[in-house]
Amino acid sequence: MFLIYFLIILIVPIFAQLRVRSAYKKYSKVNTSSHMSGREVARRILDSNGLYDVSIEETRGVLSDHYDPRSKVVRLSSDNYHGHSVAAAAIAAHEVGHAIQDQQEYAFLRFRHALVPVANIGSNFSWILILIGMIAGLSNFVLLGIVFMAAAVLFQFVTLPVEFNASSRAMDEVVGLGIIRNDEERETKKVLNAAALTYVAAAAVAVLELLRLILIYTGMQRSED
Fold it and tell me: Signal sequence span per UniProt (predicted)?
């Protein structure tokens, strides 16, 4: 049983990452009909939504693209910043989707921001409490660790609607603004869906780990009775 669990938490994230890299590699070689760079795509969508105060910056790394709500900056990795591909357009539009969410005060995005400090504490301290509890045989420490971990798991779940909504907004924008043609929609969706799979995988693994710890806690409780 433990071997099956170990294989699941190991294989699921790897599979998700491989899907992302495969889709990105394939569609980074396919240029859009508009031949716009990722930076141009991002700027076009931002301006069409009145987000003139949101800037775009090039950042290091591969698939390191993100939106920084504090600085109001969309950061695109070099390949996507300069690239004219379907992958570059999809990822740039997705990150701008987060900027639009921020502008419209999208409820799940606000909730996720509020959860960040709690989730960070949960991720950092949950295992310390759990290990102390398991080594010392103190079920209350394990329970407290589970509570902290549950906060981190909640963050993973709240991230799902945020990411899916950003992708939905991205598709609406690139189609509505004529950045991609109708025959390019399928390819764009494949890039966005592959990226979303990584968040689904992370949430699934987090839930499995939480359930395992709950089972450990209930086993400790029985042994104490």
Answer: none
